[in-house]
Amino acid sequence: MSFKSLPKIELHHHIEGAAPPAFVRDMARAKGLDVSNIFGPDGTYQYRDFLQFLDVYEKATKPFQTPDDYALLTAVVLGEAAEAGVVYLESFLAPDFCGGRDPVAWREYLQAIIEAAQAAEALGITMRGIVTPVRHFGPDAARETARCAQETAGEFIVGFGLGGDENAFTTADFAYAFDMAREAGLHITAHAGEFAGPDAVRGALDDLKAERIGHGVRAIEDPALVERLVAEGIVLEVCPGSNVALGLYPSVADHPIAALRAAGVKVTVSTDDPPFFHTDMVREYEALAEAFGWTEADFAALNRVALEAAFCDEAARARVAQRLEGKDA
After folding, report:
1. Exposed/middle/buried for residue 308 (C-beta within 10 Å: 0-12, 13-18, 19+)
2. Residue 2 lies in a domain
3. Which of 2, 160, 178, 314 is 20 to 30 A away from residue 208, measured at CA?
4. For 88-117, what is the mean pLDDT?
5. Is residue 3 part of a domain?
6. Residue of 194, 211, 237, 284 marked active site
7. Domain that includes residue 39, residue range
């Protein structure tokens, strides 16, 4: 069964993390930067564990130094996503990497990203942005990021998230930044329950008032938390290929996505940082079909969950719904 032509929604995706290695090398060469230490002999990103992955990720952002660089990055990334059948993509955007959290510079970077995203609509893909502090940069930096988010909330910037090292600081340390974002009308998501356990998911729900959880798969270890996720309708942005590549589970067959779904938890499927994990949305679907026997009907159901959970406005949701039905929009 080929899943390439099946329309897909992706809710958990990092814009820099989707940069193809060759693209990063070319950008670095053009700027006289040496980033060779982040690649393995085969030319792909190389890291030992999650913390080194974060270090390699940050080094891979170094060649992207101007709004034009981010416009080109966005065009490349959306082109690859559209090729894999993605019709709607929410991507995490970090002002830390786009102008150093300076509100004026952030607006310039964001405008370049928006223009590239608008051009990519011709490919049948719609993008929206989720402004995201980097957790291990600390709560003060997160407040600066929240200010950037407040000032640019609107049709394109629809959410506020939290990425980075899940074990850095406490979730409550970021509550003020999330209150700022919520006051601006932004939807809330947060990485939790990946390299920290079920209590991290509770923290995201209680301290940050998250509507969705990035990953969240460690919730399976706590039946009471699973029941809470079901009762509150919390959506998990699950990235099976990422979790396996980073050693959280030995294989997709061992991944808890099917058990969470069977328990009634709302789950979606995303790639996270596709070239880092040697994946794309087609490969994610193929791996899940092989591991759990999921069919096109299962993936259509997952996409309906993702459509309902998307942070976009209703006009965009209606356009994406048409695409899921195979209609032009």
Report:
1. middle
2. no
3. 314
4. 98
5. no
6. 194
7. 20-63
